[in-house]
Amino acid sequence: MTASVLTAFALSFLGGPLLCAFLLRLRSTLIVLFALATVVVGSMAIALWVETGAPLLSLALMWVGWVSACAMVGHAFLRRLAGPRIRRWITVVTILATTLPWFGLATARLMG
């Protein structure tokens, strides 16, 4: 494994789930949802703006946007559904969803 692949792997399987778990520990309020939505839109906008000049920064910002979007959807479900069992499942599925970009990167490496 090269250093860049190892870094992407660590971000996908360690950084993303840890960041998402931290974000899910916040109270599920409208302010938190609005803040996460702002992070998603802002990081994607900046990623598109710096795409040609700094592709690695752009990719990192898209990753932050993805993890924030996963946490935002998790918070939306946590606000609507009650019960400790369903809350646990929402948390687990949300954290697992943060690893999905890795599979896209791995597939792209296999094809190219």
Order of helices and strands: HHHHH
Number of strands: 0
Report the portion of residues in β strands: under 5%
Strand-pairing-aware structural class: mainly alpha
The radius of gyration over CA amounts to 15 Å
Flag low-confidence runs.
none
Number of separate helices: 5
Distance between the termini: 16 Å
Helix content: over 70%
Average pLDDT across residues? 92
Shape: globular
Sheet having the most strands: none
Transmembrane segments: 6-24, 31-50, 56-78, 90-111
Keywords: Membrane, Transmembrane, Transmembrane helix
Question: Summary?
Answer:
By secondary structure, the chain is mainly alpha-helical.
Structure commentary:
This protein is mostly helical and 112 residues long. 84% of the residues lie in helices and 0% in strands. The protein is built from five helices and no strands. The protein has helices at residues 3-24, 30-49, 55-80, 84-97, 100-111. Helix 1 runs parallel beside helix 3 (55-80), helix 1 runs antiparallel to helix 4 (84-97) and helix 3 (55-80) packs antiparallel against helix 4 (84-97). The longest helix has 26 residues, at 55-80. It starts with a helix and ends with a helix. The chain crosses the membrane at residues 6-24, 31-50, 56-78, 90-111. Keywords: Membrane, Transmembrane, Transmembrane helix.
